[in-house]
Amino acid sequence: MNNDQIDWLRQRFAFSKHDKLPVYGSQREFYRLYGESETRVAIIDSDLNQMTKFVDIAKLFRRLNVNIPVIYEYCFNRNILIEEDLGDDSLDRILPQTDDRFALYKQIINKLLEWQKLFDSSPDLAEDYDLPEYDFDFARNETVLFTERYLERYCGWSKSKTAELMLYFNELAERASKIRKTLMHRDFQSQNILWHRSKPHFVDFQTAVLGPYTYDLASLLFDNYVDLSVDEKEELIDYFYRSYPDENREDFYVAALQRTFQATSASAYLSREQGKTQYEKYIPKGLWHMELLAERFDWIEEKVLEQIAR
């Protein structure tokens, strides 16, 4: 944070000190500002396009009554904004301390269902906010990154070897792109869900798209940062589908496989190429999720998992 940005902040919020916050997988910078009676968070984002999307998508989520941090002020010229401080109680941190995990997850799923149904009842919203569409190319890009970042650069596979997966990845992307679409957060995992004033709040939503109605649920339940048993996952999938009794449950597992490939490639990229080695420990959870999904996609065991194990 430079002096110009600090001066801009001080003109809008009187603070005595500021601390830099952990950034996890983000390229943005976060600072907690300590005022006389309250704190706020400053975000520095050098990617102007990303910052613009963050502000725009925040307006969309507000229209849908989604709990997100209040954005007090922003300045695109200085790549900075001030938002509400929601604290540090992310879902992955509070789960080990709670006696009723399902109550927390059901609150989150209820909010997800609520915004999906409100969004679906207002068809003009997607155009109003120029949401990108999760189409075949979008889905296929996730497995391209899995191929390049994880299989080739992390595991050392040759391009001729990864080429054998092309037809499977194409088929998966085709299926994913045909799932009914709604407003999709796109990174709906435990570190982006903060508990504030007894309610779940959602952050890091700037990459929202018009995408599969099951993708966010898959991100939540096939989350490499928390431990959910198979039975817990299935019970929560059941809970979600009570609100969509006429939808195909296979839509969930297609999205779950896409998300698992995306999350695993992200962990490999952050740990190996960005120097954030703490993300390497999450890769085995991604492989476990692939094992679970191999029951429905039989090619995973032979073409991916057995090859990785060699």
Characterization of the model:
- This protein has 2 domains: 3-84, 2-Layer Sandwich (Phosphorylase Kinase, domain 1), CATH 3.30.200; 91-309, Aminoglycoside phosphotransferase (APH), C-terminal lobe (Aminoglycoside 3'-phosphotransferase, Chain: A, domain 2, Alpha-Beta Complex), CATH 3.90.1200.
- β7 (193-196) and β8 (199-202) form a beta hairpin.
- The radius of gyration is 20 Å and the shape is globular.
- The mean pLDDT is 96.
- Strands 1-2-3-5-4 form a 5-stranded antiparallel beta sheet, covered by helices on one side. Strands 6-9 form a two-stranded antiparallel ribbon. Strands 7-8 form a two-stranded antiparallel ribbon.
- α4 (101-120) packs parallel to α10 and α6 packs across α11 (250-272).
- The protein is α+β, with helices and mostly antiparallel strands and 310 residues long.
- The protein is 48% helix and 14% strand.
- It is built from 13 helices and 9 strands.
Query: What name is given to the CATH topology of the largest domain?
Result: Aminoglycoside 3'-phosphotransferase, Chain: A, domain 2
Strand order of the largest sheet: 1-2-3-5-4
Contiguous low-pLDDT stretches (5 residues minimum) are none
Label the CATH architecture of the largest domain.
Alpha-Beta Complex
CATH top-level class of the largest domain: Alpha Beta
Task: Average the pLDDT over all residues and give the rounded result.
Answer: 96
N- and C-termini, Cα separation? 46 Å
Number of H- or I-type helical stretches:
13
- Taken in chain order, the helices and strands follow as HEEEHEEHHHHHHEEEEHHHHH
